[in-house]
Amino acid sequence: MPVGTPPAPRAARSRTGPARRVNAVFFDVDFTLIHPGPAFDGEGYRAFAARHGLQVDASRFEEAVREASVELERLHDGAYRPEPFLRYVSRVLARMGAVGDGIEACSLQIYDEWALCHHFTLYDDVSPTLATLHAAGYRIGLISNTHRCLDSFQSHFALEPFITAAVSSSDHGYLKPHPSIFRAALDRIGTSAADGVMVGDSMVHDIAGARRVGMAAVLLVRSGQPPEPVDGVPVIRTLAELPGLLARGCGGSRPAQADGS
Ligand SMILES: [Mg+2]
Fold first, then answer.
1. Which of 21, 76, 130, 137 could be disulfide-bonded to 6 (CB atoms 3.0-4.6 Å)?
2. Alpha-helix residue ranges (DSSP H) falling in 190-255
3. CATH of the domain at 60
4. Residue 84 sits in the same domain as residue 140
């Protein structure tokens, strides 16, 4: 489907100060636009494990995920590489009771299949929100910590008409919150940090990373309690709130000083 040239977004003014000049909206992907299906819950892991001759207890999945998440917190240099994710999956399997040589191959299969779009579902608010933002003149980008092909993602979920640019960590080489991946996305969409806003579900990866380069940010909390409020970061419960928030000039203030690194 051809992508039309949308009109420039109208300037807006918030009640508390001058409007931001936001003309580009960037989205995180996993748990912001899509969520995994049953292949990646406890029973799904049990099925993967069985294919590799492993026995696991599906009821221990949640606890295993919590315990293994430390592996994903050790990505200190921000460079993308598969190994920490493979260690995370192996640790989940082991915590669920897997023992034996099959753990490595099973982990690799789970990692590979996380990249396949048919295992995921688009949240109901995504297509209507992207259509509204596109019609209002915003350029729309994706910034994702993933090895999933973002072209395939757009095609699978019929989002191509709305997306101008997409950057994945596996292609780019660095993960959010590294400043490099945000700057690459800004360059690719053709705007400045002052004119862009990042929307995502991770305070560490999406919000802090975007603010570090001088972008505004909006935190999406689809369920549960939001974290302690951070100055200048709006919190939304559904993407349906986003067009109105941006139209009111409430795209979130930038931090007082971006570090420029
Ligand atoms: Mg996410």
1. 137
2. 209-212, 242-247
3. 1.10.150.720
4. no
Nearest to 164 by CA among 140, 190, 191: 140
CA of 227 to the centre of ligand 1 (A): 15
**CB distance 52 to 225 below 8 Å:** no
Residues 218 and 185 in one domain: yes
Residue 204 CA to ligand 1 centre (angstroms):
10
Q: Give residue 199 CA to ligand 1 midpoint distance, Å.
A: 9
In a domain, 109, yes or no: yes
pLDDT tens across the length of the chain (261 residues): 434 444 556 444 433 344 557 999 999 999 999 999 999 999 999 999 999 999 999 999 999 999 999 888 776 789 999 999 999 999 999 999 999 999 999 999 999 999 999 999 999 999 999 999 999 999 999 999 999 999 999 999 999 999 999 999 999 999 999 999 999 999 999 999 999 999 999 999 999 999 999 999 999 999 988 777 677 799 999 999 999 999 988 765 555 444 433
Q: Which contiguous run of DSSP H or E holds residue 167?
A: strand 165-168
Expressed as residue numbers, the domain containing 108 is 36-118
| Domain boundary, last residue among 68, 87, 118 | 118
Cα 33 to ligand 1 centroid, rounded to whole Å: 8
Query: pTM higher than 0.85, yes or no?
Result: yes
The closest alpha carbon to 30, from 192, 147, 181, belongs to 147
How many angstroms is it from 145 CA to the middle of ligand 1? Answer: 8
| CA 185 – ligand 1 centroid, Å | 16
Distance 100 CA to ligand 1 centre (A): 32
Which CATH number fits the domain that encloses residue 181? 3.40.50.1000
Query: Do 59 and 113 fall within a single domain?
Result: yes
H-run or E-run covering 165: strand 165-168
